[in-house]
Queue: 2 jobs
Job 1
Amino acid sequence: MRDGQVVKGVQFRDHVVMGDIMALAARYREEGADELVFYDITASPDGRRVDRSWVNRVAEVLDIPFCVAGGIRSVAEAEEVLNYGADKISVNSPALARPELIGELATRFGSQCVVVGIDSREEANGEYRVYQYTGDPDKTRHSGRLTVDWVSEVQERGAGEIVLNCMNQDGVRKGYDIPQLQRVRAGCSVPLIASGGAGAMEHFADVFHEARVDGALAASVFHTAAINIQDLKQYLRARQVEIRE
Amino acid sequence: MNATASNALAIVDGGGANIASLKFALARLGVAGELTTDAGRIRDAARVILPGVGAARDAMTRLRESALDQVIPALTQPVLGICLGLQLLFDGSEEADTDCLGILPGTARLFEADADHTVPHMGWNRVWQTPGSGLLAGIPDGAQFYFVHSYAVPVTDFTTGRCEYGREFSAVVERGNFVATQFHPERSGRHGARVLANFLELSPA
C-alpha cells in the first residue's frame, strides 16, 4: 500500500501501482485467499502518522482475516487499526527500534493479534541478518541483529506470529528461501509465515513440505494473476497440504 | 426475523478492540448491533452477543465492573459467545486461573505447542458436527472455520461442533439459549456468515 493504492516492488525497490485496494480485496475474497496482509510501505520510513481509514473500508467488505503492517509504533496506533476492523497488526522496524513495543501490544491485545514481520537477508558469509526500514531503499539498513536471535527474542516478548520475509528472494519468483525458513522454523514455536520468492505453484508445495511453515504469503503472482488462488489450492490439496476449501 | 428495533441485538462491550469486523459481518446480514455494557440494554435486547479477544481475567474483571457477571447467566434470550466469549460461558479458564460465568461446565485449557502444533492455534480448521446443531444448520460437516486462540474447552456434553488441534476441543457449544463458537464466524467466509444468520434466526425466549 502507498497512498491508498496497491504497489509492488522487486527486492523492495521500484514499486509500481498494481491497482485499487478495494477492488483487489474483493477479488481475493472471491478467489478464496485465506488471509490478507496489507503493508503500508510508506509509513515507517517517513516518520509520519498515516491516515489508515482505508482499513475500515476494507474491513467492511472482507469476511476473511486480515493484517495491517507498516509504521505502527504504539499501542494507540495499533488500537486504531484494530478498531477499524483489522484482525492483526504487524510490526517490523518500530519493534527493532524499541523491542518493548511487542510486549506492550501483546499485553493489551493478546499475542494472537501481534505479528512481527522480519526482513532477513543472507550475507556473503552465510549469516542471516535482520534489516530495517526496508520500505525505502535509501533508508534500508542492517539492524545489528542476527535473524535467529531476533526470532527467539520476539517470541519471548509475546509475538503470536512471525512473517519471515527473505529479502534475497523477494519479487524474483524463484521460490521461497527453504534453507533459511527451515533454520528459523527450528527455533519458532509460534505460527511462521513464509514470504518472498513465490513464482510457481511448486514453490508453495515445497515450502509447506520442506520448511513446514504455517502459511505462505505472496503478492506479485496473485496481483498479476500468474497464479490463480483456486488452482493453487487444488494443486496443494492434491499434494497433501491441508488447506481451506 | 424482526431485527429493526434499536435493542434487537446487543453486543457486550468487553473493552477490547476488534468489534468492527463483527459489526460489519452483522451489517452484511442486515442487522445493526449495539455495543453496550448497560445491564438494562442487555436484558432488554432480543439477542445478545458476547465477543471477546484478549485475556480471560481482564474480560471477567470488566464484566464484573458492570455487574454483567450476574446479568448474563440469567438471560433467557439467545446469547452467542464468540472465541473468548465461548470460554467465558464455562466455569473457568486456566488463563491466570480465572473464574468465569459458570453457565456451562468445564474449564478452558492452554494448548501445548509441539512440533506440529504452534500456539496460538491460528488458521482454518475443520469442524465436525453433532447432528441437530442449530448453529451449524445448513453447513456441511467438516466445513472449515477461522480460529485464533491459545486456550480451548475440552469436548463436553454440550459440544455440538468438535475440532482437533493436537487434542479435541469444543468448537461449537449449545445449551438452551446459550450458544457459542470458538472460531470467528465474522472472519470465516460464507460458512461463518451462515452461523451468524442461524443465530439471528434462533427463537427468542
Job 2
Amino acid sequence: MSSIITSLPLTSLIQQLRSGELRSVEVTTTYLDAIADRDAALGAFVHVDREDALQQAADADARRSAGQANGLLAGVPVAIKDVLCVTGQPATCASRMLKGFVPPYDATAITKLKQAGAVLVGRTNMDEFAMGSSGENSAFGPTRNPWDPERIPGGSSSGSAVAVAARLAPLALGSDTGGSIRQPASLCGIVGLKPTYGRVSRYGLIAYASSLDQIGPFATDVVGAAILLEAISGHDPRDSTSVNLPVPAHSQSVDQPLAGLRIGVPVEHFAEGLDAEVERTVREALAVYKSLGAELKEIHLPHTKYAVATYYLIATSEASSNLARYDGVHYGHRAEEFGGSLISMYEASRGEGFGDEVKRRIMLGVFALSAGYADKYYTKALQVRRLIRGDFDAAFQEVDVIAGPVTPTAAFKLGEKTSDPLSMYLSDIYTISANLAGIPGISIPCGFTSTGLPIGLQLQAAPFEEERLLRVARMFERETEWHLRQPASTL
Amino acid sequence: MSYDVIIGLEVHVQLQTQTKIFCGCSTAFNPDHPNVQTCPVCLGLPGALPVLNRHGFQLAVKTALGLNCQIASFTKWDRKQYFYPDLPKGYQISQFDLPFSHDGHVDVETTSESGDKSIRRVRILRAHMEEDAGKNMHDESGRGRDSKVDLNRAGTPLVEIVTQPDLRSAEEARRFLEELKLLLTYLGVSDCNMQEGSLRCDANVNLHIHQPDGSRVATPIVEVKNLNSFRFTEQAILFEVQRQWDEFQRTGIKLGDKGGHKATRGYNPDRGETYILREKEEAADYRYFPDPDLVPVLVTETQLAAIRSEMCEPPAPRRERFHADYQLTPYDAAVIIDQGRLFADYFEAVAKTCGDGKQAANWITQDVLRETKQRDQSIAEFAIRPEVLGTLLGQINQKRITIKSAREVFGDLLTEFDETAAIPAASRIDEIVTTKGLAIVEDTGAIDAAITAVLGRNAKAVADFKEGNQKAIGALIGQVMREVKGADPQTVREKIIAAMQ
C-alpha cells in the first residue's frame, strides 16, 4: 500500500486528495512511516515532528471537508531543506553552530507553501551552510544515495534530493547557489529546478552567497516541479532582490510542447573531464529533441573556463560576510570554555561550531576581500561574472534553451573526494554559470550508467523563462520513461 | 614657535524617522525596555533581509542638500565588517566608495580674540547613510557580571557627515556643531538630542607647527571618539592641542615618524583629559564590499526637485534675508533665527501682519522671549499667536494706540489666557482698547477744549512756565490726558506749549 501512494505521480496525488479518494492524514502517515522505516539508512532527514505534520494534514483534510478554498498543494507533504526558516522548527543548516536555533518567523517560500495548503513533513539534511557537492559536510553525518548507499547523493541539497528520490516525500524544497539543486537531482535521478535569481523570495533562506542563492523545487517529474515552483514564486517586498513580475501558471502550461525549438549545445560543456558514459547519454537525450523537430545548434560560452574560479571568489566573499553573524553572542553555539576575552569567545565558538569546509570558504572569502587583494580577486571576479552573463545573453539571441550535462560524472563514492576539495569543486563545473548569470536551470533524468546510476540532462533558459524551460523539459519527459524508475528499496 | 590647530569632524546624526532604516521597527528612544523594538531583520537573524526605508533616504537627501552637498545620481550600500556584540550581523550596512552625497559646505561665523567677526567656510567631504549599532552595557558593579546588549537602537538610520580639516580652533568646532544642529533641527531631519545620542561627534585633531625656516611640521593626528556634547568637544580639543604641543616639545615626533602614526583617543569629562584607546599601526581592514541583499538607489532630478520643494529655508540664507527684507541688524536676525525655525516663523508672521520688521523684532526679542522663558513655553505654546501680536503692533504703526498702551494690552491678553486658558483672538485687542479707552484720540477739537479748560484752572502753572519752569508742563499734560484718554502725549505737549505761547 505504501509504495502505491508514494509512487503516485504528483498530479494523481493532488487529484486524489482533491476528490477525497485520499486523505492528507493517510498520505502523510504513509510518508512518515516510510521515513521511520527507511531513513535511518539514508540520512535524508534531520528533524521530523510527526505530531506536527499529522496536525497540518488533519487541518488540510478539515479545510477540504468544510469546502473551504484549497491551495495548489492542499494536503501534499513537502520536505524542507534545513536552510529555510519555519516558525518554531529548528533551523540548523546542518551545523553545530546553529544547534538549538529556532527561528521566530517563516521564510516567504514557507508562508506561500502554507497558503498553498502543503504539509511540512520534515527538515532535510544538507552540506553545512549549503557548502558542498556531496552531502558529506553535515554535522548530522552524510546522506546516502538511494541508488547505491555507498555513493553520495550530491549536494548541498542532499537530503531534499534523497527524500524525493527514495519516495520519503513527494516534493522537497532545496536551495541552489552553484548547483545545489540540479547536481543532487541529477545524481539521484529526479527533477530539480533552480529559478531565475529574483523569482523566488530569499527572505528566510539562511544565506550562503546572497547574490547567487535561489530556492527551488525537487520532484519526481517535471509537472511536480512546475507546480511546486508556481506555489513558491512571486514578488516579495521583504526581499529587495525579488523581481516584481507576474507568476506564470506553470501547472496549466507545462504540457504544451514548443514548436520550432532551437536548442544550443555548448561546446565547452562537452570538453575534457566529462565522463564518456555521461556524454553518450546526454547526446542521446539531445537526439530525442531532434526527433521531436528541435534544431540543435552548437554554441560557445567562451568564459566557461573561468566559472569555477569566479564562483569560488564571489561565493566565498559573500559567505565570509554572511556567516559573520554566527559569533556565539546572540544565538547558536557558544564555547563553554574560552579565555575570558571577547576575541577568545569568538574564536573558540566559531572554531568549534563550524566544520572544515565552512572554515575553508570563510578564510578564502576573507582573503579575497582583504585590503590589497580585493581588487585582484573579488573585484576581478565581479568583472568576469559580467562576461559570463554576456556569454549567455549572446547565446540566447540564437537559441531558446541551452542543453548539456549536469555533472561530469555520475554519483561518486562516499569519501572519494573529501580530501581533494578542488576535484569536489569541479563537480559543479556545468551548473555554476547559471548562478553567476542569474538564469534558470533544470535537471531532468535522462538515463543510467551501466552500473545503474542516474544521469541528468541540464536545460537552461534566459532570465524569467521558467515557463519555456519547464515546457521543454516536459517534452522530453513525455517521450521517455527515465523519470519513472525508482530505486529498488522504494518499491 | 607658533602653530595652527587643524581640526576635522565626523558627525553621526540620527534621522527622525518613525521606523528603522531597513525594517519596520520603531526608532523611539527606549533604554528602559531593552530589545523590545526588534525583529528578525534588525536582530540579524539568519535568513532575514534588509529593505530600504525610502522616507529615511529622503531625509538623508534633505540633510545633504542643507549641507550644500552634491547628490549622487547612483548610490549603493556596502558592508563594513567587524566583530562586536552590539553589531548583530557582524557587519554594518554603510556606504563606502559611492556615498549618496559629497562636496558641500557649512558657513560658520566666528569671533577672533580681538573680537572681529568672520565667516569660516567648513567644507563637507561627504555625507553618507548607515545603520546604527545597538548598545553594549557592561557590568559596573565591579563583580565581573556578563555584559548585556540592547538592540533597540540597532538599525536606526544615521547620516555620517565628514568635514574637511577646515576648523582652526576648539571654539570654531563648537560653533560648527551649533550651526549644524540649528540647520538639522530647522530642516526637521533630526532632533539632534545629544543626551539620547541623536548627534555624536568624533574629532580629528593635530597641529601644524611653524618652523624657524618658514616650513611647517605636522604632529600625529589624533581621533577623539564619541564626544557626546558640544562642550566636551570643545574641551577635548583644547586638551588635545595642549597635549600635542607638550608632546612635540618633549619628543619632536612628527606625523609619519616611527611612533607618529594616527591614534584613537577617548575623552574623560570628569578629568578633562583624553586617553589612549588604540594606536593604529595599520588602518583596520573592514573588507567593504557591496551588500548583495540591497539594490542600488537611483536619484533622479525630478525626485530631487520634489525633495527641494518640501524643504524649508535653511538658517544661513534666512539670516541674510531677515537683514534684507526686514532691515534687522545681524544681531537681531541671529537672535531670532537661533531660537529655531518655529520662532523665526513666528517673527515673520508678526512682521508681515504689522508691516514693520523692526518693531516686530523689538517685541519678539524682548517681550515675547521674556514671557516664553518665564513661562517655560515653546513659541508654539505661547498664548499670543503671531496674527494677534501682528495686529497689536499694527495699531502702533497706524498710531491708533501708543507703545505703552500696546504693552498694557499685551499684558492683559496674557493675564486673560492665564485665567481662562483660551487663546485670545485678535478681536480682543479692540475690545480691550475700547474698554480701557486706550485709543489715540485724533479729535483735536476735544484736545483743544481740554487744554483750554486745564490752562484756565492752572494759572499758576502757566505763569511758572512762562517764567521758564519747564517742569510745570508735566502736570498740565497729565491733566489733559486724564480728560482725553488715548490722546497722544506728544501731540498734547505740543499743543499745550503752543497755547501758552
